[in-house]
Write a structure and sequence with these properties.
It contains 11 helices and 9 strands. It has 285 residues and is an alpha/beta fold. It has a single domain, classed as Rossmann fold, CATH 3.40.50. The strands form 2 sheets. A 7-stranded mixed β-sheet has the order 3-2-1-4-5-9-6, sandwiched between helices. Strands 7-8 form a two-stranded antiparallel ribbon. Helix 2 crosses helix 9 and helix 7 packs antiparallel against helix 11. The longest helix has 12 residues. The chain starts with a helix and ends with a strand. GO terms for molecular function: S-adenosylmethionine-dependent methyltransferase activity.
Amino acid sequence: MTPTLVRQHLPRAGAVPRVDPRARARDWSEIQERMLVPLYEAVYARLDVGPATRLLGLGCGSGLALLMAVSRGAAVTGVDTSAERLDLARERLLPDGRDARPGTADTRIVRGSPADAARADAPAYTVVTAFEPIGCRAGDAEGLGELLADAVPLAGRGAAVVLAGWGPPERCATASVLRVAAKLAEPLRGAGAWRPTDRDDLERVAARAGLRPDGSGRVACPFGYADVDSAVRGLESTGLFDPAVAATDQVQVDKELAEALHPHQRRDGTVWMPNVFRYLVARVP
């Protein structure tokens, strides 16, 4: 969901909108990131993530999923290309500001690709997570495939690789809002535009990466916001509306996004959108 590693691998279809990356990262960290907590919890419980786990988080963003793994005793490495989100991850996980705790490999934050996280003296990872959901943006499956090509060699035989995706549009209230992004970005017609979710997206990515499927699950992840303004900021922090901003302008996107959110606004002003996300557990052969 974040403009993370997956997004960085997508070809640009038009001019990149001018945004404040620090403000965008803060909105992601403070508003949007928590929406996927049920997904993180379900995966960690299923895989029994704990002290014996060495976890590599792809597109780790501002580090909430990593923090939850650390709280279960896992050793974690987070990889991302967004400097602003990684700054927030370091605040959470490495308050001394370093990319690793002195004298230990328990927690590492790495800017770059999964290959940049490789260490000759480190044991293989037992769990690899790619929690940014695919399935609503053209080209996102291909971008995830590129990440896995770098990440899978760092994992041990039998290691779990977790992929996440949006559920069926009819079970994701946010899908109707994301169609606004598709409509506004229509002139670009390129990678990054919204697309309908395909039920086999995750399996295809796993197969291309040479992974063996080992079960899947669905998790309810409702998107809840204090008001429409918070919802607009949270959703825009995902980067899913960037092509629309590039094709039109920020004011128009803000206006039409706010209008699309009104059917989901409650009497008290809060915004509530039920969603279902899907995850696939695959194994390194």
